[in-house]
Design a protein that fits this description.
The chain is an alpha/beta fold and 260 residues long. It has ten helices and eleven strands. Helix 3 packs parallel to helix 6.
């Protein structure tokens, strides 16, 4: 049974809640019976060895696993008290309200402006686009670097800038939650630091769930940490507890580098 320490939701409804979530790819079980709550305006890090189910579990929160034909999801994922897997729930609307940033920067072959404007446009936004684009780029800490080159191709940006552009693109549709799947794994240390600083700032407005293989990064940026191993949740609680006085021997072995 997983060890779950006290999670402070501030007396409010959690931003997200997973209840006994399992995911299989065909006959292979990737995630098994995971339950946890994600408090609002906090950063939750998912850690664990490669292949332990971190990214698969993350994708449950905005139904990205629906796009994999062999994937089946069991259990409940609650958002505003509603199970996101009920038949009447529109997965496209789920992904608008729960955005995602992927491991490698994936800008569209469009201008910087059009990358950020893409989401609002396809979601029927009929307001003034330039202020929305500027706001999103400012939130992603990119505006000062690109304000005079919005018509340039997104491909002309550096890798770190492209990743922040993808974050701006996710923010442009004004989601409530942002999921990040190892967003700095392909970046150099300077770009990684900028992403980490950005995540710290964004939690004032958004709830963030991040997958990371970097223990130091998890310790630096997250409020809560969940350790997964072989598809199971082993321990979940305040990051300080997980990294300094974990209750589970496997957690301690992983965070201290004895395996993984």
């Amino acid at each position: 049974m997983a060890i779950v320490h006290d999670i402070d939701t501030g007396g409010s409804t959690p931003a997200l809640e997973a209840k006994r979530v399992s995911v299989s790819y065909g006959s292979k079980r990737a995630v098994s019976d995971v339950s946890l709550v994600v408090p609002r305006h906090r950063v939750v890090a998912l850690i664990g060895p490669s292949g332990c189910g971190k990214s698969t579990f993350l994708r449950c929160f905005n139904r990205m696993n629906d796009l994999i034909p062999s994937a089946t999801v069991e259990g409940e994922v609650l958002f505003h008290g509603q199970d996101l897997y009920r038949p009447e729930i529109d997965p496209v609307e789920v992904r608008r309200r729960i955005g995602m940033v992927f491991q490698k920067p994936n800008p569209f072959p469009k201008s910087i402006f059009d990358n950020v404007a893409f989401g609002p446009r396809i979601n029927g936004f009929d307001g003034d686009l330039p202020p929305r684009v500027e706001e999103s780029l400012r939130q992603a800490a990119l505006w000062d670097e690109v304000s005079d080159r919005l018509d340039d191709s997104a491909y002309e940006l550096s890798g770190g800038q492209q990743q922040r552009l993808c974050i701006a693109r996710a923010l442009a549709v004004r989601p409530e939650i942002v999921l990040m799947d190892e967003p700095a794994s392909s970046l150099d240390p300077i770009a990684t630091q900028k992403i980490e600083e950005l995540i710290f700032e964004l939690k004032e407005r958004y709830t963030i769930v991040i997958v990371t293989h970097n223990m130091q990064q998890a310790a630096r940026i997250s409020d809560y940490t969940a350790f997964l191993y072989m598809g199971e949740l082993i321990e979940y609680g305040p990051t300080e507890v997980i990294f300094t006085r974990p209750a589970e021997e496997r957690t301690e072995a992983y965070v201290t580098g004895r395996f993984g």
